[in-house]
Write a structure and sequence with these properties.
The protein has one domain (1-80). 34% of the residues lie in helices and 8% in strands. The protein is built from two helices and two strands; from the N terminus they run H-E-E-H. Strands 1-2 form a two-stranded antiparallel ribbon. The longest helix is centred in the middle third of the chain and has 14 residues, at 43-56.
Length: 80
């Protein structure tokens, strides 16, 4: 994400919704995950949260890299 305000806003949005999310100060990259109470990672949660954030912030234009499987159909706004 190239807009630093969008970057900070999205990190905050994810954190207050129970995600572990961070970005290096000079980075345009956010890394995030959300664990279930069982300890497993909730893979769909980040997608759903980012989609909700994008709906509220239509001028934001993220570039998403999914996990080691790469971008998939669950990331409709991802570049390959």
């Amino acid at each position: 994400m190239t807009n630093p305000d969008h970057l900070r806003n999205l990190v905050h949005f994810l954190r207050v919704r129970g995600c572990i999310a961070y970005a290096a100060e000079d980075s345009q990259v956010i890394e995030a995950f959300r664990a279930r109470s069982s300890g497993s990672v909730d893979e769909g949660a980040i997608r759903d949260l980012v989609e909700a954030w994008l709906a509220a912030n239509p001028t934001a234009a993220p570039w998403v890299e999914a996990d080691e499987r790469g971008p998939g159909p669950w990331w409709p706004w991802a570049r390959t």
